[in-house]
């Protein structure tokens, strides 16, 4: 499994190491180049000074020294100490051991050797050409600078062994980049500690979740508050609150459903027992008819319970284009047989085009339950009127009847589950309006209940209408 800690640590350490390595390499190359430039400038300056000294020497010398060696007493009869004699110190009070790796040669107009330093070869090391050059002589490469005196047509060659220059340049360049390289382990350790410290709130959150009991759905809290984890913690808390609310509703719903199912099942059992104990066919048929009626009520209750449970777990309604006027006509057509059984008048006034976006099944449940309740609680021969009209920014669906209606004290409670305003009328289970309210909430609709002008109950449903074209 992928580890965020390992990924961050490896990524940060790799980036820092590569960046520091590249910067060190660039610094080393740049320092080496600048030191080479400095050495070349020193070599040219040494050539000019040596040329002046040799010119004075030739001016006052009566004869040239044997083999052209001059300044044999350069050190005043003393030899610079070796590193071993000076405890590995290359620079001593008498000079530097690298002096033997520097020399000069003075050539005449014909290229013959006139003068040279004690450490210089006895033969010209190269054909004279003005300027800087790198040549191979003996077992080493040499960096030379040749100075041409136009007045005397003499050539002065000042040479320095290339490995000496490289060694000095490398040492100086390495000493320049050595501090960053030495601090790299400390920097990497600090970065490791920093990443570990930065991920500590995530570990705290993980432990807080892992140590929780499944029944503990209270909000999560961590000791360290960080901006990046606040949205995650907030979403987890929101999810747990929603889950706690869902579990509470399901617990209450299960308890209420179990209670409500006891009555029709008990009634059904009594009627069946009466039918078995009947002493006549007529009495037996009466008991069976009552049992069938109780079975129908139980079936209706179970269907409503399943519908209510499904709606409670639904978070949003599907957005499907539909026409409200057609939906209302279809709903009335399905319920028309119930109204005909009770010889009721079922009317619809929906002459407008009402495009809408919603879930047809849920809207069918919404209007179907309202109309079904009006049919069930309106006496035989009653009137149920359904109308559809458009208001500014919304639709209004009104369902009114001339039944007994509800008392003012009962209206606030009609939305409660299993509440029945008129238990003696109809065979409902008290879940219809709870289903209606949930379906309306999923469509951002509002519902009001009051007394109709004809004396019955009036339900008004306000649905958001799309902008008019």
UniProtKB/TrEMBL annotation:
* InterPro entries found in the cross-reference section: 2CSK_N, HATPase_C_sf, HATPase_dom, His_kinase_dom, HisK_dim/P_dom, HisK_dim/P_sf, Sig_transdc_His_kin-like_C, TCS_sensor_his_kinase
Which residue numbers delimit the Histidine kinase domain? 256-467
Primary location group: membrane
User: Which Pfam family name is an example for this entry?
Assistant: HisKA
Q: How does it sit in the membrane?
A: Multi-pass membrane protein
Q: Give one GO term, molecular function aspect.
A: ATP binding
- Which keywords annotate this record? ATP-binding, Kinase, Membrane, Nucleotide-binding, Phosphoprotein, Transferase, Transmembrane, Transmembrane helix, Two-component regulatory system
Show the SMART domains listed in the entry: HATPase_c, HisKA
Task: Write out the annotated subcellular location.
Answer: Membrane
E.C. code = 2.7.13.3
Q: Which reactions appear under catalytic activity for this entry?
A: ATP + protein L-histidine = ADP + protein N-phospho-L-histidine
Report what the protein is called. Answer: histidine kinase
According to its UniProt entry, this protein's organism is: Oceanisphaera sediminis
């Amino acid at each position: 499994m992928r580890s965020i800690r390992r990924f961050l640590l490896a990524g940060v350490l790799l980036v820092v190491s590569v960046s520091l390595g590249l910067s060190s390499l660039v610094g080393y190359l740049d320092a080496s180049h600048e030191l080479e430039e400095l050495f070349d400038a020193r070599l040219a300056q040494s050539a000019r000074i040596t040329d002046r000294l040799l010119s004075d020497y030739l001016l006052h010398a009566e004869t040239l020294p044997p083999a052209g060696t001059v300044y044999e007493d350069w050190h005043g009869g003393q030899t610079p100490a070796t590193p071993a004699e000076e405890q590995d110190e290359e620079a001593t009070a008498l000079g530097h051991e690298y002096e033997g790796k520097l020399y000069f040669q003075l050539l005449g107009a014909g290229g013959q050797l006139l003068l040279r330093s004690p450490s210089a070869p006895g033969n010209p090391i190269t054909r004279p050409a003005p300027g800087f050059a790198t040549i191979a002589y003996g077992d080493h490469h040499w960096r030379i600078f040749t100075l041409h005196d136009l007045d005397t047509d003499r050539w002065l060659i000042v040479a320095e062994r290339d490995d000496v220059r490289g060694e000095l340049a490398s040492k100086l360049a390495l000493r320049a980049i050595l501090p960053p390289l030495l601090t790299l382990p400390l920097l990497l350790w600090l970065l490791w500690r920093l990443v570990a410290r930065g991920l500590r709130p995530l570990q705290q959150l993980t432990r807080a979740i892992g140590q929780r009991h499944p029944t503990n759905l209270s909000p999560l809290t961590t000791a360290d508050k960080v901006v990046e984890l606040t949205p995650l913690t907030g979403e987890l808390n929101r999810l747990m609150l929603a889950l706690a609310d869902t579990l509470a509703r399901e617990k209450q719903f299960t308890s209420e459903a179990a209670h409500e199912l006891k009555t029709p099942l008990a009634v059904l059992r009594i009627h069946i027992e009466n039918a078995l104990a009947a002493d006549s066919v007529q009495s037996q048929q009466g008991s069976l008819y009552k049992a069938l009626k109780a079975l129908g009520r139980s079936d209706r209750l179970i269907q409503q319970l399943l519908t209510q449970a499904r709606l409670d777990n639904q978070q949003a309604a599907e957005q499907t284009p539909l026409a409200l006027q057609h939906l209302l006509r279809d709903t009335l057509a399905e319920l028309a047989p119930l109204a005909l059984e009770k010889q009721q008048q079922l009317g619809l006034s929906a002459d407008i085009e009402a495009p809408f976006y919603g879930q047809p099944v849920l809207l069918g449940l919404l209007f179907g339950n309202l109309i079904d309740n009006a049919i069930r609680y309106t006496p035989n021969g009653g009137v149920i009127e359904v109308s559809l009209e458009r208001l500014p920014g919304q639709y209004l669906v009104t369902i009114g009847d001339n039944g007994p209606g509800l008392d003012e004290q009962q209206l606030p409670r009609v939305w409660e589950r299993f509440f029945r305003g008129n238990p003696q009328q109809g065979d409902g289970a008290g879940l219809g309006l709870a289903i209606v309210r949930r379906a309306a909430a999923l469509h951002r609709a509002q519902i009001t209940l009051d007394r109709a002008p004809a004396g019955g109950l009036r339900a008004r449903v306000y649905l958001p209408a799309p902008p008019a074209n």
